What does this fold into?
Amino acid sequence: KNNFFLIAGPCVVESAELLEEVAYTVSGICKKLAIPYIFKASYKKANRTSANSFTGIGDEKALGLIQAIGKKYHIPLTTDVHTAEECAIAAQYVDVLQIPAFLCRQTDLLIAAAQTGKVVNVKKGQFLSGESMRFAVEKLRNEGNEKIMLTERGTTFGYHDLVVDFRNIPLMKANDVPAVMDCTHSLQQPNQSGGVTGGNPGMIETIAKCAIAAGADGLFIETHPQPAVAKSDGANMLQLDKLEEMLEKLVKLRSAII
Amino acid sequence: KNNFFLIAGPCVVESAELLEEVAYTVSGICKKLAIPYIFKASYKKANRTSANSFTGIGDEKALGLIQAIGKKYHIPLTTDVHTAEECAIAAQYVDVLQIPAFLCRQTDLLIAAAQTGKVVNVKKGQFLSGESMRFAVEKLRNEGNEKIMLTERGTTFGYHDLVVDFRNIPLMKANDVPAVMDCTHSLQQPNQSGGVTGGNPGMIETIAKCAIAAGADGLFIETHPQPAVAKSDGANMLQLDKLEEMLEKLVKLRSAII
Amino acid sequence: KNNFFLIAGPCVVESAELLEEVAYTVSGICKKLAIPYIFKASYKKANRTSANSFTGIGDEKALGLIQAIGKKYHIPLTTDVHTAEECAIAAQYVDVLQIPAFLCRQTDLLIAAAQTGKVVNVKKGQFLSGESMRFAVEKLRNEGNEKIMLTERGTTFGYHDLVVDFRNIPLMKANDVPAVMDCTHSLQQPNQSGGVTGGNPGMIETIAKCAIAAGADGLFIETHPQPAVAKSDGANMLQLDKLEEMLEKLVKLRSAII
Amino acid sequence: KNNFFLIAGPCVVESAELLEEVAYTVSGICKKLAIPYIFKASYKKANRTSANSFTGIGDEKALGLIQAIGKKYHIPLTTDVHTAEECAIAAQYVDVLQIPAFLCRQTDLLIAAAQTGKVVNVKKGQFLSGESMRFAVEKLRNEGNEKIMLTERGTTFGYHDLVVDFRNIPLMKANDVPAVMDCTHSLQQPNQSGGVTGGNPGMIETIAKCAIAAGADGLFIETHPQPAVAKSDGANMLQLDKLEEMLEKLVKLRSAII
It folds into this structure.
């Protein structure tokens, strides 16, 4: 009832086995803790730093694997879309369409996502203020879609770091939409010289706690059984076996929010 | 021979008359000052802050008007593209495809642009370092396209301001590609509460002079006979009748660069 | 026992009546909520933006008024010092010497403060990382003083805004010292054209809650019965009659931190 | 007549021999290139990151060595002051009192510097806008001192980098005072984990050229025959034998500024 919800999963669909392991574990924890759970995985990575990075196992194959998780565990699903065309395709498989932060100002993409009738979760660009997200909300509402979520994922702070400005949580909620905190991407260390984005998983719990304290309605956490061998975002995902203990603390914290 | 080149024009195709006025004036100035000139106009605006902003007069109509300018004045043309599909279309009309800053990490878009065989001009994202642009260059070169330009357009500096880091000019040139300074968008004041991006045209000359001093190969300047009534970016375009005097100063400055 | 402590008071000593009103009210609330309370007021303002701003009623007179509050209410006292000479003087009146953020790198000042044997509370400069504060701690410990606190008060984020990076709370605590969150100065809007720093008191509660969630040991809150007529920092102080309700929420939140 | 002036020297007085070598070389170059030259060295370093860093050879001894340089080479002198008391002392030895960036808001220091009647050069804090420096100018003019210079030395840009915003050159000149570009400290890389500030001397020429292009009246360059063994700021000083070639380019550039 008054708990936060959780969007979680591996960064990208690597294999059926990976999705199964993560969904089994996280859905079990969330049932125990009464946390509404939305399974997340990207079916393709469209904006990797380097051309040599892994981008996916094939779009339809990956979307099918995501869909199978939803059926097996009876949980809603989300994935991210990158063009107007992808919206209609992905909408056949998932319940929530996520707009990537770099693309949050692309009007055609927002309109196409809204027109699917699915929930649309817009990530705040690293270059945008929380207040400016009201224009993204307007673009979606103009299409008659009121199922909107906004996600904070950190703001550009010099070239090699992001900072989370928690004022953005109440500012985004002022649009009468749920505000989500992306606790893993917001710890990215971008613009690394090797072409692989860095991270700081030791701070995930601090970011998550602050988000709950600031009134976030949901948390977004990428998790993987072995981040060190993950095919994307290994530097900032939470190790799967650390999730339960952290969520317990967060549920307790949430209960003290008035 | 050793002069800088100029990419200039109105922000967006508003009418045939506007393109004609700007192209006639700027091509005349550039001929006089021996500045190689590339005419620029957007055929559509895909990432306006607000859904209520002007986005264009129709894509093909606008592209046709741009093309007519090239034929009449014998000058190369550029416009910006937003999806992989748009690349092949726009390539039929213009010589240089410009990748918008927000989209500079979208691998599919870069690949599609490269595959047209046209020159590709990638604007540096407000969230990227000059060094990171080498990964954009790699993505283009992987497709066998060596006709590449990189453009600096300012970096996120708090929510309501951009800052130009001129270290990025030599850092981008280190990829053996021309570096361009966008002297007007880099003065934008984003995230204004009214939903219309602000600007600071009084600083255009300072930015342009610094760019020449830092070794920029080209300048990008949006210009309009009456910025105050322009349908996009009116707050930061240079008034057309101020262009010649400024370019004279810049040509003199360029001649003193060693 | 496990509660946070509170450093609070008006920005500057304006009059005996003001100190009395604030100390009476805040000490009453803190007794009720079992919050250890340290009374704070500046006896002079040394770094006002403009030469025309109020700087104080006279140093010794102001220090005397602060001292009287401590005697009457049996509470520890703090004020800020700006030169090595001021340390020995202020140490005769107060229990905690506060080093202003702009001065946190002035070695002579830190040494003089440490040598008084009083508690030294160093505010993190707007230009420093949480990690770098370990060098301030070292400078104090080198003088044999282990009574150290560190305070986060926001980081430069463009010219006209500060951002609070809550990663700094655990990073500063890693020095085995209490970390304090300055919930009012961190909301300053600096570099206003009128020469008076702005603020955003509507966000004080959000910053305070996040600080508790991030593990802060203490909160610093400037408060005034009528901020609009205060002689300094009126734009960011908390109105005195809003303090109790907010502290109740924070005490509840603190009890849920594990 | 229309040339820029140069403030240059080693970061700190290490020895008489060092001052002699630098002053001999730089004054020779400046005479050849018709650049007015002001010799600079700090007699003590008051805000080193770490307590273990070198702070000086003794104040009066260092000031005496600086003074001897002025007499021998018939050049004006500058050094930085940190407290009101130091102003009167340093004013006996040098012609220009420099206010460090961290201290540019300390009203007592500015007033004491102004009251010496010497030229006062205020460095813009890493946390201040160019526009805000008008309040520093006012504080000095209030004391009847009109001999004022303002220096840009970079702005906080994340924790580990500074960025130079060249808009600040015309903004500071708008106060009818000379604007100086500090080409070496503005390339500092602060908050390094080892407690020693980093630098990027390969970019000094780019910063200096942009400054001239933006209309700076003077350049500030710390230089040392062997930066790698310098006792302070070794990471960002210009190697002495690279100065002449760079200044030749800058003089040529300056002649093309209109």
